[in-house]
Amino acid sequence: MDFETIKLEKQSHIATLTLNRPDRANSVNQKMMLEINTALSDVAYDDDLRVLIFTGAGTKAFCGGGDIADDELYADWNMEQMRKWVRKVVHGITEKLWNMPIPTIASINGLAVGGGFDWPCACDIRIGCEKTRFMAAQIATAIVPDSGACYLLPRIVGSSTALDILYTGRWVSAEESLKIGLLNKLVSSEELEKATQEQAEMIAKSPPIVTRFVKQLVYKGLNTDLSANLDMTAAATAITMFTKDHEEGVAAWLEKREPIYKGQ
Q1: What does pTM read for this prediction?
Q2: Among the listed residues 220, 253, 258, 260, the one whose alpha carbon sits nearest the alpha carbon of residue 236
Q3: What residue spans define the domains of the chain?
Q4: What kind of fold does domain 208-255 have according to CATH?
Q5: Any idea which architecture 6-204 has in CATH?
Q6: CB count, 10 Å around CB of 139?
Q7: From first to last of its 264 residues, what are the pLDDT tens digits of the chain?
């Protein structure tokens, strides 16, 4: 699949989606948002994939936010046209990441601004480097955080910390991000790609049916009570106990070898 503003690569059960406008700090224009939506849909429906890596090209920015050069395209829009675009296209990215059936890793290689802040929050795991800095920049131009941060960020760092960040639009350093749990791991910029790949490969070796169930159980558990979550857990346990992957896992354990899971 060919794109102009992003790259989508697939290898060894791992998909890598790269924002590919490094000359513009990987800032987001209309074309890129449409292409990200298309790529995420493709990943979601590819049964061979087990992990998605979401990153940016170059060494300075993961995503510099919205491309100001694109603003003239919105000049003739009315309020309802803008609402529909945001809800369908901008939020389409957020929801596709949040609802992605396979585990997702944001590899944040530099500045993460605006939507570039929000979208990693919709990923399961975030890995950064010393160049990583977050900013909910929309407030600087008197716009609400438009890509889901008001929902996603409190679920990661808590409501008070989220409000501090969202009220002010201040920079959040890599060190602070690790401290508050916004980053799961902090490595050097030279090690970021390797660390991300190692994390992805580790997950890809896990039984894919189980990782998909675990993701559902964790996220659905945020909005259900314990009893309801245990009902879902019981059903998932019964299903996975009767898979070929479970048979392989038991056999590998007894034979003291690495299991080879096929998602069956």
Answers
A1: 0.94
A2: 220
A3: 6-204, 208-255
A4: Lyase 2-enoyl-coa Hydratase; Chain  A, domain 2 (1.10.12)
A5: Alpha-Beta Complex (3.90)
A6: 16
A7: 789 999 999 999 999 999 999 999 999 999 999 999 999 999 999 999 999 999 999 989 999 988 877 766 777 889 999 999 999 999 999 999 999 999 999 999 999 999 999 999 999 999 999 999 999 988 888 999 999 999 999 999 999 999 999 999 999 999 999 999 999 999 999 999 999 999 999 999 999 999 999 999 999 999 999 999 999 999 999 999 999 999 999 999 999 999 999 989
